[in-house]
Amino acid sequence: MRHPFRHTAKFHLPWYVAAESACFHCKQQFAQVTMLIHHINNVHPEVESDAKFVPVKYQIWVQLINGLLRELARILEVSYPDGLIHFVSCLNIPGNKMYGASQNLTFRTEEVFLADIFCQINNLSKFNFNIFDNFGQTYIHSLLHWKILKIVISKLTAEQQNLIQTFEEQKDRFGLFNGCLSTKPTGPLMAVDAHFHLDQLMVKTGLTGIHELDDMGTSDLFKTKLSFLIANYCNPAKFPSSAERSEIRKDHRIRLSFGMHPRIVNLNSTSTLDRFFKNLTSILASSKNCIGRRMWIGYYR
Predict the structure, then answer these.
(1) What sequence ranges are listed for the domain C2H2-type (predicted)?
(2) Whole-number mean pLDDT of the chain?
(3) Do residue 218 and residue 101 come from a single domain?
């Protein structure tokens, strides 16, 4: 094959891996920068800056790569990043004729640039030009080498290989974000939600307890770790009881706020609203409460 890298980038790797020759507008890989420029000029010249890999795309690209590597680890049933690094090291790639790999694999110039961005944004140690150390161990950023990544993907079944190439598009169809939503390649995604409805969430998801919130979201694609939440209650008819509030408070990540949605005011009689306000008043009389503004008139810490 005359140009193994171009073939691999276009047909065997996700479209965004070789970022310098990828169209970020169409989500296509062209394997050559000249082909990319030709495509942009002839198909959508009006969005040139959106299509090219420019500095504003660096963060997005790292998110995509983080998501790709985490997905690889998930499919291979290894931890991330240590398990994935160990998996690659055990393949004995340097000098292995089966893989067509030379003893001293080197990064392409473009890969050096991308790997350096990957290390910087992920707060990793400074980029190391060596793909393998003297003991045959590798580094997480070495998976950005096109041949290393291709070899790892080749260990998957045909169905899994197709998933790796298209899972970002599949996530998009389900309304999920690109990448793993994290700027760090280790540990779960730390999430904060300043306004959510715990009562509605429990009903719609069928959760049996608050502890299950740690597994919310697309846990098969990425893992979340909820670090702080404010649960808003806007329908006085469905406020949690004192006992239920005490139970919720046992989870120190959650704070409660109480108020009345304007729609509730419009749909109820004066007598019903009086009863609702008395309930709110009693909650405000409890400790650790204060008056809020707009529709929230109580805040339970």
Answers:
(1) 23-44
(2) 78
(3) no
